[in-house]
Structures are given as C-alpha cells and as structure tokens.
Design brief:
Blueprint: E1 3-12, E2 55-57, E3 63-66, H1 67-75, E4 81-85, E5 92-97, E6 101-102, E7 111-113, E8 126-128, E9 132-134, E10 142-151, E11 154-162, H2 163-171, E12 177-184
Parallel strand pairs: 1-2, 6-10, 9-12
Antiparallel strand pairs: 1-11, 1-12, 2-3, 3-5, 4-5, 7-8, 10-11
The chain binds zinc ion.
The site of zinc ion has 7 residues, from loops.
C-alpha cells in the first residue's frame, strides 16, 4: 500500500463558520434533510476564537488559514486555491481548493454512502472508512475530493496534496496543520 499524498486536517478553532444557520426558518437550510444547502457557503464575519493557528477548522469543517500559510502557497506557485479574507480577523482567510478533483474509491476506502437527498442533492451521510483511497495514480499540487463529508449538518470536501508539497508544508511547521495518508487504489 503506497501513499500518493495526504489530506489536510486543521486543529479545531472553536468557531462557527455559519451564523444563523441553526435559526428557525433559515434559508440556508434544506427543508428536507435540514443540512446546509450549499457545501461552499461561508460567512466571512465569523468570530475566529483562536488566532494562533496557521491552519484550523471550524466546527463545521471549514478551513481557516493564516497569512503565513497563504504566502507559502503563493511563493511555491501552488494553484487552484481560493483565499477569502475574513472581515472579522485581519490576516486570516477561508481556504478552498477548486478545480482539481481527487476521485475517492468508495469501495476500497470501505465507506458506506447514504442516499442523496432528493431536494438539495447532497449525500445524506458517509459512514465508516479508515484509510482514504483515491483513483488518481499520481498527484501534483492540491486537489479536492469528489465526495463531501458531513459534520454538524454541513458538507465539506477534503483537501488532498501530493507528497512533495506535503514535505514542503511539514518543513514550515505550520501550527494546527496535520496530515493523513491518502493511498492510490
Ligand atoms: Zn437536503
């Protein structure tokens, strides 16, 4: 079993990315499954509770990065990344990977995927799985998974990076950034 990359995990920053989501009658909520009706929705006014981390995760799984992390990505010409500034915390950004997709091998990863919600069209839930297998044989730079995981009624993809970039990221010792192996199916 050979690792082809890593997915990035952020330390929890004790913050919520989406204010008003849980409110009664919120338009952000799917009427049927009660989940967020867009996997990419994000509130740039979020109250960031921990500002000592370079890479962190809100309760809903949105990734927040520091200026240092952003500068590293730009300095290393890493592409297809989106940094949305937080209006409430100078020097911090909502981090997303767009465009390049890693295809998750559901079977090899031993995931059980729930039926799609007939209204919003997102997976109801993904259960099980220990190691993450993808179908891509070789990676270069950042990728986003083609399936999305649910946390607190919010759906988020996972962000995967190749081995070479993993090494560069580890050398920088970013606070709050952890890595999990991704294998090729
Ligand atoms: Zn739904």
């Amino acid at each position: 079993m050979k690792a082809v990359g890593n997915y990035l995990k952020g330390q929890e920053n004790l913050s919520y990315a989406i204010s008003g989501f849980l409110d009664e009658g919120s338009r952000l909520k799917c009427d049927k499954c009660q989940s967020l009706n867009s996997p990419f929705y994000f509130d740039s006014h979020l109250n960031l509770k921990k500002k000592n981390l370079d890479f962190s995760s809100t309760y809903e799984g949105a990734n927040i990065v520091s200026e240092k992390f952003k500068r590293f990505c730009i300095g290393n010409n890493l592409e297809n990344l989106l940094f949305t500034p937080l209006e409430s915390a100078d020097g911090f950004y909502h981090f997303q990977v767009l465009g390049k997709t890693a295809e998750v091998d559901i079977e090899k990863s031993k995931f059980t995927v729930g039926a799609l919600c007939s209204i919003c069209g997102f997976n109801t839930e993904i259960f099980g799985g220990v190691e993450l297998f993808i179908r891509n044989k070789k990676l270069s730079g950042f990728y986003t998974t083609d399936i999305i995981w649910r946390t607190h009624f919010v759906f988020r993809p996972r962000f995967i990076v190749d081995l070479e970039t993993t090494k560069l990221l580890k050398d920088e010792k970013f606070k709050g950034l952890y890595f999990e192996n991704v294998y090729s199916a």
